[in-house]
Amino acid sequence: MSNINKNVSINEGIREKEIRLLDGKDSKIISTREALILAEESELDLVMVSPTAKPPVCRIMDYNKFLYEQAKKLKEAKKNQKVIEIKEVRLSATIEDHDIEIKAKNANKFISNGDKVKVSIRFRGRQNNYRSIGNKVFERFLTKVSEDAVVEKSPQLEGRNMFMVLGPKK
Questions:
Q1: Class of the 86-168 domain?
Q2: Are 122 and 89 in contact (CB under 8 A)?
Q3: What does the alpha-carbon distance between residue 55 and residue 153 come to, in Å, rounded to a whole number?
Q4: What is the pLDDT of residue 164?
Q5: Is Iron one of the keywords (predicted)?
Q6: Which residues contact 28 (CB under 8 A, 6 or more apart)?
Q7: What is the DSSP string of 106-165?
Q8: pLDDT at 7 (0 to 100)
Q9: Which pTM was predicted?
Q10: What is the pLDDT of residue 72?
Q11: Where is 65: in which H helix or E strand?
Q12: How many angstroms from the chain centroid is the CA of residue 34?
């Protein structure tokens, strides 16, 4: 809660001479002193809502309740967020069909959970000379992966590794 609205001025922290005070539907320009007196009479806080406006906009409210409700909204928004993870499936240039089927089944499971899948091939030794084999392995892998998957990043070569990223269809 402490990182929410650290730069908001309240009560005596407001240094402006005149402010625009929001009262429900009405807004009126009054001196800061009068607004502070009104806030004290109603046992609430004078909170600067928009410091960049001319004159600055303030509202009379319970500041602690305001902070609590903002923290609650942030927490609720965080809860509703879907975190997408990137799972990795490693293949080799000399992989057999049955092994590709098993890896594709795992990739399908990840994609059905809503995660992205990074498929990578590491070339070793003489395999570096035959990188076209990696493209053929990726093509075989893509035929085994379900229709729910979409290629987000086409196969790329990075050093000894070739990789592509698959994601779920929207």
A1: alpha beta
A2: no
A3: 51
A4: 94
A5: no
A6: 20, 21
A7: HHHHHHHTT-EEEEEEE--GGGGG-THHHHHHHHHHHHHS-TTEEEEEEEEEETTEEEEE
A8: 66
A9: 0.55
A10: 93
A11: helix 63-79
A12: 43
Please give the Cα distance from 135 to 157 (Å, whole number): 10
Give me the residue label for tokens 């109603």: 42
How confident is the model at residue 2, as a pLDDT? 45
Virtual torsion, Cα 148, 153, 156, 159, nearest 10 deg: -110
Token pair for 114:
């809503």
Per-residue pLDDT, 5: 57
pLDDT at 91: 93
DSSP SS3 for 83? coil
CA distances from 163 to 117, 121, 131, 151, 159 (A): 10, 6, 12, 11, 11
Single-letter residue type at 146: S
The list of the chain residues with pLDDT below 50 reads 1-3
